[in-house]
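[audit] Reproducing an earlier prediction to check determinism. Same input, same settings, fresh worker. If the tokens differ from the archived copy the diff job will pick it up downstream; this log only records the rerun itself.
[audit] input (168 residues):
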Amino acid sequence: MDILDFIWHRANQVSNKKKISFTINLSLDENEFAGLEDFYKISINDIAKKYGFDIYTDERIKKFECLIKEIKYSEGNILVANAGYNVGDFNIINSLLTKENLQIHTVFIRSEKRRNADLKEGQELYNNLNRWIDFYPGQIEDVHQKREDNLKEIIDYFQSTKTLIEEV
């Protein structure tokens, strides 16, 4: 089942509402998203630029408020890349969406196979370049494990909200 079929198969969970989808550590240029032709696709960075968010002077909540405005005023379904990076971010986003009577439909994450390939690539780079980089032995694995733990927390959070999670 491809991503488009998956979303439409589960559409009855959020019937007659726009489908709000997010990616975590995935680009909008992924081939898997090409089939989502009826989705407005934008990254959180593009939203921040559009609304004049300044990372140095604005509070973090403003970025999420800009995100909610973009979702609210977009027509139809929306796919936002990298809207959040941890449970705290998504908790804020979810509470802001709830105030607007909206909810997240699907969250797309990197597949376990791709995450493991990223680890292997990092290990190979470390083996080839460790004379020139300032990483301690095992740091690549430690960073990978922290990312896995963070992703597990995010997955658990979205499972508790009955949001669909799709690996890409």
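[audit] rerun output stored. Observation attached for the diff report: Residues 11-15 have pLDDT under 50 and may be disordered.
[audit] end
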